[in-house]
Each structure stands twice: as structure tokens, then as C-alpha cells.
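Hey, resending since the last one bounced:
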Amino acid sequence: MYADLHIHTTYSDGIYSPKEIINKAINAKLHKIAITDHDNYFGSLEAQKILSDIDSNLELIPGVEFSCHDSGSEFHIIGLFIDFDNSNLSSLISKMQDERMKSIKKIISHLQSKNIKIDLNKVTSRAKGSIGRPHIALELVEKGFARNVNDAFDKYLSNNILGKIKEPRMSTLEAIEIIRQSNGLPIWAHPKLSNDLSNNIKKLKNQGLIGVEIQSPRYGLNRQSELINICKKYKLLYSGGSDFHGVHEGVEISRNNAINEEEYNTLLEAKKDL
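The C-alpha cells again:
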């Protein structure tokens, strides 16, 4: 059994629709997937409906990925097995969508002041769910202001260039608490190896973290091995997935980027114990 528990769609910064993601997962002979779009679960809802209408053994795990900021660092916290009907979760999702739109308007206004003329409506039309800088980058490319998305970020959209204009971020505590309130498992996505790793793990576990991604195409064997050892030390569960967006060369939805049956079943047991 293979499960890819970290996938993005056109409802955030992925380039494939939920239907296309489902087809890719079926072709890859996966058994379970989680669509974990940034700050929303709309892609998961659409995928849920699609799977209910087709004959497939593929199972969808309800998911979301929250963009967080804590102590000067950025964290991404995934929620697995979340309850889409939880009112607190729905309120937070709505709040994040509003905050993202405010940020996008500020960025576009800043660009226009530099004579980079792009239209807000064109940018928003690219976003089905969570709007973000990648949607501005695509418009910059189409208008000829940049060669590609990476070039657009380098020239116009990096944190250093935008200065005080920041995309909205919640605290890790807020993300973990809302995931647990919605009967989900909070997972730290693709943590970086650093001198603060152990301290961050301890802090996040005290906040209610359940697991860490130990499987990711971002990792080499050394990084994966260190994360496994840390999970054992702090009694955290294993998760993982492709973090597929469709734009990173060599990263695909495949069994190579999935967790195995034993790792998945441990997560499932933790869900039952909530």
C-alpha cells in the first residue's frame, strides 16, 4: 500500500486540477492521497466528489496545508484526516482567504507604482482557491515582464524586494490547535535541517504536533535519516509525500515519494485515538 499525503492543485499553487491529480495518482498505482492545498480545502472537496462518481479504489484523505510564521521562521503545518464541517476550521479558512486578497492587492499596487502594469482581475481569475504570489508571477510572465515564474520572483516578488508587504501567516500554535479541533493530525511538512531543529520539534510537539514528514523528494538520505532519528527520539509519527505542484522538474506523483502501509496505518491508529 502506498500513500502520497502532500499534493497541491489549482486551488492553491499547483498547476493540475483535482481531476488531473486523481488520474495521475491512479496511473501511479497509489492507494491513498491527500490534497493539501495552502490555507484551503476546496481542492479536497472537489476531489472527494469526483471520486464518489467514478469506479476507483483510490482513497482521498481530507487535508490542508497551513502557512505559518513563528519566532522569525516559516513553518508549514499539514492537517490530515480533518473534518471539513468543523465551523472553526471553516472560519479560519475564510479569514485566510480574505487576508491573502488584501496582500495581493498591496503587491499589485506596489508593482503598478513601479510602472509594472498588471490587472488585479486577471490575477484573481488565475486562482480557484488560495490566491498568492505565484498567480502574480504567472501574469508577469504572460505580460512579458519575466521569462518564467522563477524570474518573476527574482525580479519582483521575493521577500527582500517586497519588504514589509507579507503574505498572511498564522502562528504554528493556531494551525496545530485548529487542526486538532477539527479531529485532524498536525504534521510538520518538509522541515529543514538546522541547529534549531530539535528545539523546534520540542516546541511544536508541546503545541500538539503529531508527526513529521520523513518522506519527500526534497530530502537526501542523510536528511531523511536524521528526521527519522528525531521522530524516534520525540515519539512522533512518520508522514510524507511528493509535495507535488507540477512545476518542479523531476518531482512526480509516484510510489517513490509515498509512505508505506506500516507508516500509514500508524497515522490511522493515531486518528482513531483522537
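Residues 2-92+169-272 form a domain with the TIM Barrel fold (CATH 3.20.20.140).

Sorry for the duplicate.
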